[in-house]
Model the fold of this input.
Amino acid sequence: MTSRLKVAVTVLFTVTALAGLFPTAALRADTLPSQPLWGPYVTGTTETGAVVNWKTEKASWGVVQYRDQVGHEDFVFDPTPHQLHHVTLTGLQPGVDYHYRIWLLDPDVNPEPFRTLSADEMERWLREHGVATEDCSFRTLGSEPFTFVVYGDTQEQVPFFTQMERHKLVADYVAQEEDVSFVVHLGDLTYDAADAVGWDLFFEAAREMLADTTIYPVMGNHEDYSRYYHEIFEVPEYYAFRSGEARFLVLDTNGRADFDAQTRWLGSQTGTPAAWTFAFHHHPAYSSDARNYGGWELSRSHWEDVFRGAGVRAVFSGHVHAYEHYRIRGLHYFVVGTGGGMLSDLSPDAPAGLQNRLAKTLGYAKVTVESEAAIVRFLKVARISEDNREVLEVYPFGSVFDTVTLEPVAVTRSPASPEPDFRVSPPSLTLAVDRRGSSRFNLRMASSDDAQIIVGTEDLPFDVEPDTLEIEGSGKPQSFELELFGDRSSPNGDYEGKLTFVRDAGDNVALGVKVRTTVTQTGKRSEPLAFVPDQTILLIAVVLVVAANIGVYVAYRKYKARVATRKDA
Done:
């Protein structure tokens, strides 16, 4: 083998080895099923935001595509491949129906091209590379009238029945209800919250309901502070939310519950007036349950006076698997542990304050809140045998067993001028820019007043122009084109930060909005490398070794030639 051939073979071997180190990224269509393992399901909805959640059997990345009633559309990109996704939507309007769907993409699909697309191009690209769920919907809070549903205790009782046989009956009826803003689940969602398989059963049974509303969970004794409960719903043991003039208080009555801390927290939450206040906890204060006759004294002794002083109109609980309604000291107590678990036996002795009750029946409470009244209806779903083994009868949809009318608390407020409003959408951006160039993109903004918008960046080394914008105070979304410039002094790569928009309307009220932004800078470097990735270091090392070997080989050949010349002389 000649010396040149040896060099060529060495180089060829080196190039082949390097090709194995740097494989071409596969870009292929999604291989995931169109239906996630869990969900989609919506949590944490407020008047201006919501969280869309889902879980896939294997790690994936995805996109939430959503639009409002007038057709304004946005995409929120979740670029990290994992199984359980929580995608936050912000900048929404109160009391508005939003339609959404999830695009599932295999982790082998390269997400980089998606970052650079305009909104008009995104759906076409997603259709080519991913698969979408069916269209789903949810409603933001804040409108009146509104309706919500309450029920609990959906745990399976294997081998007698599963959630698909009992809970699904209730959830599917709730899914048929029109204009339900949200569902409060009173706890004991599954039999063993530490077992992921039980959660599979819960999400499969409630799939149709969860896709088109928001769920607010109450922690039951079967959840028992499980990490799955917290990971799935991202809520603490007790929390509150509001919808217009209504306030909702979710409490913890389980084994490690701190009643004193929650009592102090209740005081902070009820310091301002509300026309409607509803409370939810798992263990009922009053019950005729044969095994727990009378109810749970702890919640009565700690909170009944607090509830009365705060104007709570109704308290909802589960744990006892039956429907009961009590009126005690002006408070309405409802027990609605009728979501599918093993149904309870009620004592023939009626406790004081009992208004109505129904045993061995699956069902749910539907609450319609209006300005002058709130109407609580208990709807029957199915009648169960005394031994809990059989479903004896499925009732027609809309079968009302009990109706209770509540009156609001009178709220007096001093007149106030309308609050200023400033919104920016989409709530997040993914951009790509060449280090020597720029990238143009569009945003929509809406302002209640004529104003100047000051544009800036946070935690990003890039400049944005223009740095000021003029907006008309129509309250309607207006489109603005902005330009992001690459930064030659910064290394290529991904940058996480925010674009900032501060509205100056000359009224001494500065409203600011931050848009979460990911920028990928690419392009040829002209500056010294500030950072060398691990694989590039390896490549340089291999090239230097090859070059050194070639140099040694050449020097050796020259040396042999000189020795041969001296011998000839």
